[in-house]
Design a protein that fits this description.
The protein is α/β, with parallel strands linked by helices. It has two domains: 277 residues, Rossmann fold (3-Layer(aba) Sandwich), CATH 3.40.50; 246 residues, Rossmann fold (3-Layer(aba) Sandwich), CATH 3.40.50.880. It has 18 helices and 23 strands. The strands form five sheets. It has a nine-stranded mixed β-sheet with strand order 13-12-14-15-23-22-21-18-19, with helices on both faces. It has a seven-stranded parallel β-sheet with strand order 5-2-6-1-7-10-11, sandwiched between helices.
């Protein structure tokens, strides 16, 4: 029988439920269980695909093209899983399905209500991963905070689910803030008590309490919370602020979280085995040297907008036993050659990640020009790849107005253009999404990185390299090192006059792992370190 773990949050948002859910997944997987994570978000958007990165952070894309919450990136990186469309559900998606069914007569003229119709659809989606994956354990994170009005249907659904699958197969984990009052030198438990009380009033008794705190929680405080919240004392787990997110699974295992979960669910497993993960964390915290990477983007005020890119750079550092120091550069600050050199001269390597819209584009082009002329390693992802093409067309071929039609529809040299089948489409869910094949040219930096002539990477974009200008750019020296064989779309370009200047139309950050870095990130960090030396 599949077991179900539900993680809710209390007191305040931003406590790290996603990291906690990913850590539980890693711990249980290391015990030999097949684990799948999923996230249920209460907002009314269909998915995060059209949301402003400043509001929501990055959009994580799965192999099958789902645009999802960034927590799915944590799930995949920690458990090395491949998630899918069913792994992220929003209120918007639930309500849309129910209302479409009502319009089609699916309820036979009956009144459609939150209970039972909305909750039944939520339950159907919660159990969908069970059918698709045949997992031993399904870990479901409920977005938001207990007490939020919009979260109530999801909380009601996880209350009801125990009557479908059996109470012995459900484990409810409540993650709450336990604040420390500096002036009084006291840990305060009242917020947690009230949060648990509110959860109980909604019909859910947590099996495990996870305490987010900045200082260790003493045994007396734990026993007090266990008594007042009706939880076994060995199921009160502290989740202290760690030096890095990769330390969290190790800290939780020291707290015997794996034992507590297995006790609640009646699971008989081998002990947790995190030796390799522990070695990786040790390399991360004790690098042999460091390298400085400038990230040139337009959303640099909110680092979560580039979360997977940042994590992948760290993975590349771990693979080379190097620490990575990030310099966040607002592309709008790079106005000309002089200001660009002054701002980027200390960087060992430069990365330009994805993005949409015209803001900051000229600064990114300046960054690519600086790298090409000064042989500084450059890694372009999605928009960053298109920037290489635009810069090369302008300053090597001499097409001064070369551009993408996304930013300049009047350009006479649209080296980046909209795909014909994208014209006139609405925004949401219509990008080129998911995993696609790429044939890699022999003898290129890309082939050296992957060690293969065929790769599969995930995409999220609408505009493409314009094949009309392909031969001109190749004759001028630009290397086309990767092409999608199905549609003959250019996926990877390289600049030969630079020892390492690569742009990929895809997003390799989505498949990078802490102990298995994305090949291009690994080689980019090595090239940056070689440049520094």
């Amino acid at each position: 029988m599949t077991k179900y773990i539900f993680i809710t949050g209390g007191v305040v948002s931003g406590l790290g439920k996603g990291i906690a859910a990913a850590s539980i997944g890693l711990i249980l997987k290391s015990r030999g269980l097949k684990v799948v994570n999923q996230k249920f978000d209460p907002y009314l958007n269909i998915d995060p695909g059209t949301m402003n990165p400043f509001q929501h952070g990055e959009v994580f894309v799965t192999d099958d093209g789902a645009e999802t919450d960034l927590d799915l990136g944590h799930y995949e990186r920690f458990t090395d899983a491949t998630l899918s469309q069913s792994s992220n559900t929003t209120s918007g998606r639930v309500y849309m399905t129910v209302l479409q069914r009502e319009r089609e007569g699916g309820y036979n003229g009956g009144t459609v209500q939150v209970i039972p119709n909305i909750t039944e659809e939520i339950l159907r989606r919660m159990l969908l991963s069970t059918k698709e994956t045949n997992a031993d354990v399904i870990i479901t994170e409920i977005g938001g905070t207990i007490g939020d009005i919009e979260s109530l249907p999801f909380v009601e659904a996880i209350r009801q689910i125990k009557y479908q699958v059996g109470e012995e197969n459900c484990c409810y984990i409540h993650l709450t803030l336990v604040p420390y009052m500096n002036k009084a030198h006291e840990i305060k438990t009242k917020p947690t008590q009230h949060s648990v009380k509110e959860l109980q009033e909604l019909g859910i008794q947590p099996n495990i309490l996870m305490l987010r705190c900045d200082v260790p929680v003493d045994q007396t405080t734990r026993e007090k919370l266990a008594l007042f919240c009706n939880v076994d004392s060995d199921c009160v787990i502290q989740n202290t602020t760690a030096r890095s997110i990769y330390e969290v699974p190790l800290q939780l295992e020291k707290e015997h979280l794996g034992d507590a979960v297995c006790k609640v669910l009646g699971l008989q497993t081998p002990p947790t085995e995190l030796t390799e993960w522990s070695k990786m964390v040790d390399v991360f915290h004790n690098p042999k040297d460091r390298v400085k990477i400038a990230l040139v983007g337009k959303y640099v005020d909110l680092h979560d907008a580039y979360l997977s890119v940042v994590e992948s750079l760290i993975h590349g550092g771990i693979a080379n036993e190097l620490g990575v120091d990030l310099d966040w550069v607002d592309a709008e600050d790079l106005k000309d050659d002089e200001s660009t050199k002054a701002r980027l001269k200390d960087a060992d390597g430069i990365i330009v990640p994805g993005g949409f819209g015209s803001r900051g584009i000229e600064g990114m082009i300046q960054a690519a020009k600086y790298c090409r002329e000064n042989k500084v390693p450059y890694f372009g992802i999605c928009l960053g790849m298109q920037i290489i093409v635009i810069e090369y067309a302008r300053h090597v071929l001499g097409w001064a107005d070369a551009h993408s039609t996304e930013m300049n529809k009047e350009t006479t040299h649209p080296v980046i253009d909209l795909m014909p089948d994208q014209n006139g489409k609405i925004l949401g869910g219509t990008l080129r999404l998911g995993k696609f094949e790429c044939a890699v040219a022999p003898g290129t930096l890309t082939e050296k990185a992957y060690g293969s002539s065929t790769i599969w990477e995930r995409h999220r974009h609408r505009y493409e390299f314009n094949n009309k200008y392909r031969e001109d750019l190749k004759k001028a020296g630009l290397v086309i090192s990767g092409v999608n064989p199905e549609r003959d779309l250019v996926e990877v370009v390289e600049v030969p006059e630079n020892p390492w200047m690569v742009g990929g139309q895809f997003h390799p950050e989505f498949k990078s792992r802490p102990n298995k870095a994305g090949p291009l990130f690994r080689d980019f960090i090595k090239a940056a370190y070689d440049n520094r030396k």
